[in-house]
Amino acid sequence: MDRRARLPSRRSLLQVGAALAGAAALPRFVQAQSAAPVRLGVQVHLTGIGAAYGRWYARTARAALEVLNAAGGIGGRPVELVFEDDATDPRRGAEVVEKLATQAGCEAIFGTLFSNVVISSAARAGELRIPYLVCSEGHHVASGALNRWTLQPGITDVKSQVIAMAPWVAANLGRRVAMIFPDYAFGHDHRDFFSEAIAARGGEVIARIAVPPTETSFTRYLPRIPRDTEVLYHVMVGPSVLTFVKELGTFYGRGGRPEIFGFIDSLEGVDIAAPGLAFLEGTHLWEGQPRYLQPDAPEHETFYRASVGVGDSGAAQEDPRDVSTYAHMFSVWETLFVIKRGMEAAGYRGPADRSALVEAIEAMEAFPAGREHPQGDKLFNGRTHQAFGHQHISKVEEGRLAVVHTTSIEDGLYPDEVDYTTRSF
Amino acid sequence: MALGPYLLLAAIEGLVGAAVLALTAVGLSLVFGVMRVVNVAHGAFFMLGAVAAWFVTQAVPGPPWVGFAVALVAAPLSVGALAVAADLLVLRRLDYAPEPTIVATIGLLYILQALALTGFGPDARPVPAPFEAVIQLPWFGVSAYKLAVVGLAAALLGFVWLGLARSRAGLVMRATRSDRAMAEAFGIDTGRVYALTFGAGAALAAVAAVLIVPISQAHYLMGGDPLLLAFIVVILGGLGSLRGTVVAALAIGLGDGIASVFFSPTVGKIVATLLVALVLVFRPQGLFGREAA
Amino acid sequence: MSGGRASLALHLGVLALLLALGFVLPPYPHANLARVMVLAVYAMGYNLAFGYTGLLSLGHALYFAAGMYAAGLTVRFGVFPAAPAFMAGVAAGGGLALVVGVLALRTTGAAFMIVTLMVAQAGYLAILTFGRVTGGDEGFVLERAARIVGPLDLSQEGPRYAAALALFAGGLLASLALVRSRAGRVLVAMRENPERSRMLGYDPFRWRLLALGLSGAFAGAAGAGYALLFGYVGASFAAIDHSILPLLWVLLGGAGTVLGPFVGTLVMFWLVDAASGITTAPQLVVGAALVALVLFARRGLMGSLRARLVPWLP
Q1: Which residue in A354, B58, C54, C78 has its CB near the most CB atoms, within 10 A?
Q2: DSSP for chain C?
Q3: What separation in angstroms does the CA of C227 have from each of A387, B118, C141?
Q4: Per-residue pLDDT at C165 exceeds 80
């Protein structure tokens, strides 16, 4: 597909090369036969600051692949995954998309998490005209900043998450909120969307504490939290998250503290029973999917948990110290099954059907809860390329996370900011 | 919070950062001063110290302080030995030429990071503090361990200073630093001095990391910041001046803490960064340097 | 002087080879080579300051980013079309390097390294904190429509390769001309013996400033070219490791050689890519290769070639 698109423009540029270019256009491998495996690329943060997430994303993708192939693959064809590390680096991300698309011969690419990597890679995927499905929870897809080829069907975006939870925070924890967040785009999204959402409920953000992204110690920023704060809202990302939470605990010490509401991102991959975290008892956290097995967990949740090899407390079955990124990694699993459904709906045979695959996904409206969507049912907006699901608010009780509130999907809906279906491929 | 307590908190935080930074920077300064090479792998040695502390505390049974005490000795020794090996196998064969040494130590940094990634993994892992106690002030709590870090680092720095000023090893090192050819003429095996200096520098980075790791976790990419800050501190303090290095570490650590009180955090960082540049523009030899660096 | 003619033939030969490769390479190496050629311009600029003039800067990412954001932002907000935006990028890189140089060149050696490092770090933090304009760490994408220069759609593989080659050829021939000119010899003299050059009446400050400004303009051109050719602008191009990379590329390829920066960039790119295919810890392979290279070819690949086999190599 892309090779054919390349040549005419090159010929128009340098006519002298027409003969040579013709030679290069000879296909180097025969088109895949209908029984040949479907190859999908997984762009994964195996090294760099996203590596703790990437490792679990890769593990979840492998588990999903096994389930998918055991059930007959896609349209009767077995599926192969090609994993490629992008070092959590936007520069390398674009090259990885290139490698998966043009060298590994993948039909579509999925799995990217960090939003800066998503944006640089999506630009390249758009040029290469390959479906690019991200598992990032960033608002970049639904904001219209990306392109027709980029979709996020596996996880709710941060804007929707925040909008869905703000009413509960205002009603149950308090209305005067201090926010502490990393001073870059992900943190700014939280700042902007939450400020707006809490104001709509009669609340107010009384302090916005942006922590420099290069920071590895946090105590010095904590005195900026005003005394009359009712709720402290925290979200942190990266290897220093445990330091942040521990220092928060030390700072409040045995003195009084406001209610604390955080995003599980601040503790993702971290054992909440770690020394120094006892103060978290009684605080609340957002979870995309509950890390601890809940008493009323449906069959598809336990099936998913067992398939990925995660125990009841959210850690690897073989090593209880190895805590998973449970609140995010379901997105990889669900995205793979969305690709399956899309390819089967589009009658996908090869790269020529890539745009048909995107259109097939755009035509989807809902994903029912079940083994293919273990986090729960979702609505999918084909115009904004974004999925919307349920969110959970959990309370730390006796060192475990217990779900105390689950939002409805409608709580997190907002007006469309883009209609990708009107854009060209 | 009122300005007084806020400043107190910022000062305590700054002091902890400064203490660990000074220790790391003195290690870099030794290597830079004696061998005249920029050791880009210094941060990787720091990281290895923290990783070693994690392994040691996992392996040693008993209360946390036992494991910590073992790590405080074992981590710098093993990291120092590794550095000596790197010196003998690689740097010596480059005759310490400045530019090839930069490439070689970047290579070493990559190798050590990759080994840590494979053997230790990509996660940030906590190391238990030797004791957990919070000193409750009227306005906020302070971790007692943080205060202990300041004391331990100061003691270690005093020890290094004594060693350099009073011991025969220190004398030999200083002689090699001021004139290698002359030192050789006096029968000093400067090759051995170089190897041991490189090892000692790495060991200092490792011991600094053991001190800080109960506060900030071991992670395979944690060496970047300490390397940069130590490098800045060494040059800002004035090459070859132990006193300058310590003063600069205090200035950077405390300045960073205090600036965060008065500026919005990231703007504070920008201001502090430019300030360091300006100081060097008008005093290129550093605060306590004697000659142009 | 036959060396002069031979070196001209060699460099034109390299350009001809790259032109030919543009027609025969399969898609993946084709796109990578375009990327390497743009980054090589950055390395060539670094080489002017470091390899020829002896200025070890640790802050060149600032000039690369200045070019990238100047071109990217002007195109994004519709100030200029792509071609003048590219020129804005060159001017931003060169201009910023001159401004930093006026202050930083009061220092030498290690202090110069720190001053350039600090200023670049301040620039990086500024990009992050002014996210509403710059897009912060996420950066932004340049739409295809904004990346059309005359008949060339730079988002298409063919025109992209051609534009990268043109940029590279410009950088390479400019470096070659500079190195062979009187100015180039003055710069080398500055590196080798500043005192003597001063006595001969050359003002070291002005010559170094000139070298740094040119170097910054190269970096700015590479940054602007990268933004327009690959359609993405982001803060990671302003981070510290993006300042260290050109130093590494230049030392690997051979500091003070005209082709060294390209060779170093190419080899490093290939190493990272190949290693990531065979191991989950590619850094291990890259690190070992760096140590081995420096042990066996201390002056870098082209530098060692010049020392042992081809003495006329510029």
Answers
A1: A354
A2: -HHHHHHHHHHHHHHHHHHHHHHHS-HHHHHHHHHHHHHHHHHHHHHIIIIIT----S-THHHHHHHHHHHHHHHHTTSS-HHHHHHHHHHHHHHHHHHHHHHHTTS-HHHHHHHHHHHHHHHHHHHHHTHHHH-TTT-EE--GGGGEETTEETTSHHHHHHHHHHHHHHHHHHHHHHHHSHHHHHHHHHHH-HHHHHHTT--HHHHHHHHHHHHHHHHHHHHHHHHHHH-EE-GGGGSHHHHHHHHHHHHHH-TT-SSHHHHHHHHHHHHHHHHHHH-S-HHHHHHHHHHHHHHH-TT-HHHHHHHHT-TT--
A3: 31, 35, 9
A4: yes
Q: Which residue of A has its CA nearest to B12?
A: A220
H-run or E-run covering A81: strand A79-85
Chains near B (3 or more Cβ pairs under 8 Å): A, C
Q: At what angle do helices C182-192 and C157-180 cross, to 10 degrees?
A: 70
What is the C-alpha to C-alpha distance for residues C270 and C286, in angstroms, rounded to an integer? 10
pLDDT tens for chain A, 425 residues long, are 343 333 334 334 344 343 333 334 433 343 444 578 999 999 999 888 888 899 999 999 999 999 999 999 999 999 999 999 999 999 999 999 999 999 999 999 999 999 999 999 999 999 999 999 999 999 999 999 999 999 999 999 999 999 999 999 999 999 999 999 988 888 888 999 999 999 999 999 999 998 887 788 888 888 889 989 999 999 988 778 888 888 888 888 877 889 999 999 888 888 888 777 888 889 999 999 999 999 999 999 999 999 999 999 999 999 988 999 999 999 999 999 999 999 999 999 999 999 999 999 999 999 999 999 999 999 999 999 999 999 999 999 998 999 999 999 999 999 999 999 999 88
Tokens of B210: 């053991």
Side chain identity, residue C192: E
B282·C106 Cβ contact <8 A: yes
Of C108, C129, C291, the CB nearest to B267: C129
Site from C291, C295, C301 to mutate, B interface, most B CB atoms within 10 angstroms:
C291
The residues that bridge with A77 in the sheet, in sequence order, are A74
Give the whole-angstrom CA distance, residue A288 versus residue A328. 6
pLDDT recorded at residue B268: 79
Closest partner residue to B265 among A55, A221, A239, by Cβ? A221
Closest CB to A52 among B1, B123, B142:
B123
**Element of type H or E holding A40:** strand A38-44
CB of B213 closer than 8 Å to CB of B55: no
Is the Cβ pair A210, B132 closer than 8 Å?
Answer: no
- pTM for the full predicted model: 0.90
Chains that touch C (3 or more CB pairs under 8 A): A, B
Q: Does any CB of chain C come closer than 8 Å to the CB of residue A184?
A: yes
Check CB contact under 8 Å for C234 and A103. Answer: no
User: What is the number of alpha carbons within 13 Å of residue A303 lying toward its C-beta?
Assistant: 15
Per-residue model confidence (pLDDT) at position C264 = 95
Residue among B10, B141, B216 whose CB faces A216 most closely: B216
Distance CA B13, CA C250 (A): 40
Q: For the purposes of burial, counting CB atoms within 10 Å of the CB of C150, is it exposed (0-12), middle (13-18) or buried (19 or more)?
A: exposed
Residue C298 and residue B97: Cβ atoms within 8 Å? yes
Looking at this protein, which amino acid is placed at residue A310? V
Residue C4 has pLDDT above 80, yes or no: no
Measured between CB atoms, does B276 come within 8 Å of chain A? no
Using an 8 Å Cβ cutoff, are A90 and C232 in contact?
yes
CA A20, A26, A27, A28: dihedral to nearest 10 degrees?
-70
Q: Do C114 and B90 touch (CB under 8 A)?
A: no
